[in-house]
Structures
1.
Amino acid sequence: MRCLLPLLLVLAACLHAREAPNVLVIMADDCTYNDLPVYGGQNAKTPNLDRLAKEGLVFNRAYLAEAMCQPCRAELFTGQYPMRNGCAWNHSASRASVTSMPHHLAPLGYRVGLAGKVHVKPRKAFPFEEVKGFDTNCVRNPTRPHRLEGLGEFIKRDQKKPFCLVVALVEPHIPWVMGDASQYPPGKLKLPPNIADTVRTRQDFAAYLAEITYMDGQVGEILRVLEESGKAKDTLVLFTSEQGSQFPGCKWTNWDTGVHTGLIARWPGRITAGRRTDAVVQYADILPTLLALAGGDVSGHSYDGRSFAEVLLGQEDKHRKYAYGLHNNIPEGPRYPVRTVTDGEWRYIRNLLPEEIYIEKHLMGMKGTGVLNNPYWATWVRDSWNNPHTYKVVRRYMRRPAEQLYHTAHDRYEMNNRAGDPDVAAIKARLSGELDRWMKAQGDPGAPQDSHRAHQAAREGKHLYGVK
């Protein structure tokens, strides 16, 4: 028996190595999920994402906690909400004590790399191997041409070790200058109801759609590199659209078009192709899921998320009961803290300073912000005096009540606030109570968190609030 034991251990290790998947995560940048055809978008052309959806599993209800680039990436890479990992504002930092994908997967034999946009810090908390080939600057005009050799080299470098590779694209983040906007004649577009219909908006929306198609082309190229490596059958591919676009009511908000993300998963032979799921999942769940699939001990880490591996493999059709979100407006504009919770059917939003007006300096095209102005916003304000719909969306964006409740499953753009409806008072009370519980558990003080003092402390690696 003693002679057999080493052999059994070797066989078990080999079996684990064969079953632990390679992982390829492809991230878009500032892409509103329901502008994609796979989620009902009526304009964009995305043949590669459409094909990926047919080959895999589409998550109808996937969310991130904060609709800004840095906080949502920190959540994805750490498995922790913004208050716990420390990155609860844009252009801040996570706690130096935080651990992320490289820390958790490397002990299981994984090579963990990142190509493209990083936008997380400090380096100690996010020690990804740098993989060359994709632009790291999301506001460069134009985006630098991408090269695929670095991806291929990383994927094929060591045949004995699995890999985890994040390819973080910079489209369709503004400036919207990539792709062929002539594919999208402005007059033929079907604008979403949360967008004002002006001539300039249609022009800019066409440019945004062209960037979505450009991004989709990059997805196709990345998947071809994987196919050519011979490792596609052994690789879990995850595509996510990140947070919403830089149109009002999407990025920098807690509306569904801000914090709802597209998520598609493909793993040939393990994930049944052509399925959709209503299971509620969140960015914080992704790292625990990868660790579970790799055979790691999920219980040994302070995750806010939990593995949804059973959903991927078709063993469960439900996951979490609630997904949570927050918004701190500094340094993107004056303080305007927001918190939200959803059960996938209903969304409750609490605006903590409803007496204030909402201002976002980049979106409103203010000079000196370091990025391309958004000239469409001025046309919204100009036309609001004689266009009731334009006035409605401008007011919806800038003046918000203390509480908002939406039946998102039937009002996907959340245009009908039912917070004052007595027929759904019990639903509002349930979600409001759950939001209170979550904020307390996260050490979230609410409005005091959205301050220059707290943001500056986080930039310096000192965190005033949150669970440590």
2.
Amino acid sequence: MIQRPRGTRDFTPEEMETRRYYEAMMRSACVSHGFREVQTPIFEHTELFTTKSGPGIIEEIYAFKDKGDRDICLRPELTASVIRFFVNDLTNYPRPLKMFYYGPCFRYERPQAGRYREFYQFGAEAIGSPTPEMDAEVIGLAASILERTGLKDYRIRVGHIGLLKGMLRTAGVEGDQALPILQKLDKKMYDEARTLMEAAGMSIESAERVIAMTKVTGPIEVLKDFEGEARTYLEEVFEILGHYGFRNLEVDLGVVRGLAYYTGMVFEVDAPKLGAEKQICGGGSYSLSELFGGEKVFSTGFAIGFDRTLLALEKEGVAPKRFRVKAYVVPVNEGTRKKAYEITAMLRREGVSADMDLMRRNMGKNFKYADAAGVENVIIVGEKEIETNSVNVRDMSTGEQILVPIEGLVARLK
């Protein structure tokens, strides 16, 4: 047998029902917050991602030459594609421009629990002015999405990259020299970060103060000993989220998001039940459009790991509502089959999910199939019933069976 490629998955009808259920739920949350959906290509010019993340990303993605000898890759994430789209075509849209998206992404990495080479991202980006309201809007949207899914055990950790960058800048370290330090701090690789800071000319005391800052966590009050715009900004973000009714968040200055384009507020969402690989969402404010040839604009957004969120829900025992066919139409014999076709078509036209016996089974086997398939009602089309323009309807959950006029069947099933 030909197997599916490593790091990919096939989804059963039941799994697709679950995935579409939560996908629709997330879309609904975005629309209720005034975000509109966009879609970008699954493959892009490789330059888009090397410009954003550096040439090292080539080792982590599916990159190749196409038949025109162009450097192409399967997208490893969606933020760069959305901002490229903004620079190409959307700069004249009124602001704030609030967009959301969903789709597959691809990374060439070692598959493990909840991590695949083909995975799905749900995310949102907002482009406008650098106000606390903009950042609070995207954090609030991420929280609203997770609330709607029914996930209970999660926490939102909010930091500000400006605090760390400011401390490094005071010590004479910034730009390309600061980036590898931030990346090590993001991964909690403190020994490596110390080595880099000392190599950059920082004193041991300054390096330890930076590391100590990344360990500051707790309610917004933990920032009382810090001064400056970043503290005031985060306090305003937390105040707005409080008015929105969100309490499940804390300050964590160890949220670094070690990518060069992050500029201010950064946040991550953890689902502790996932264990060591517990992050299900990450984002913050950033500046990317100028890298792609556009004007410099304030942007803020997030990406939710769709697959990991579903895994977290599964760990919590949250079960989505399953789709069930409303009506399964069964002709008693060949003489009633044409009428069964007509009844099935009528139900479908009226928006009632309907299936019918396509295998020419006997009644016993049809009932057995209907039970196994989770059908709600079996519509029995018999000769005597047709004479009175009626059908028998059996409720498969109770076993109750009643005679229903065909003209009243749709209302009965709805």
